[in-house]
């Protein structure tokens, strides 16, 4: 599964998307509604590391597969939106895997 860079990007996207949803859907309500800030720091740190890794890996894969500006732009925008990396996986990354 993790033998190609595009598959590594897909896994990073999945993990980054899950961490973002955990941060927004669970940790932030715990912090602001129930005054329990501890989970936010741990999940926030994990999400930050995964976010940076995802962005760097998009650039690596883009250089390797010679993506155009539009595809790179949408892959990076996907990391900013909830559920964005899942959509990017289905629309941007999975078709690349089939071509190889």
**Number of helices, where a helix is a run of at least 4 consecutive DSSP H or I residues:** 4
Given helix and strand content, the structural type is mainly alpha
pLDDT averaged residue by residue: 93
Could you tell me the strand content as a percent range?
under 5%
Helix percent reads: over 70%
Radius of gyration: 15 Å
Shape: elongated
Tally the beta strands: 0
Number of structural units classed as domains: 1
Give a short account of the largest sheet.
none
Helix and strand run = HHHH
Q: Distance N terminus to C terminus?
A: 13 Å
- pLDDT < 50 stretches: none
Main location: membrane
Keywords: Cell membrane, Membrane, Transmembrane, Transmembrane helix
InterPro entries: DUF3817_TM (IPR023845)
Organism: Fulvivirga kasyanovii
């Amino acid at each position: 599964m993790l033998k190609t860079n595009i598959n590594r990007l897909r896994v990073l996207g999945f993990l980054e998307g899950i961490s973002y949803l955990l941060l927004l859907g669970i940790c932030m309500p715990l912090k602001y509604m129930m005054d329990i800030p501890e989970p936010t720091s741990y999940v926030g740190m994990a999400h930050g590391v995964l976010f940076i890794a995802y962005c760097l890996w998009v650039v690596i894969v883009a250089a390797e597969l010679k993506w155009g500006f539009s595809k790179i732009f949408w892959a990076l925008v996907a990391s900013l939106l909830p559920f964005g990396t899942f959509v990017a996986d289905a629309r941007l990354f999975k078709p690349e895997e089939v071509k190889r």
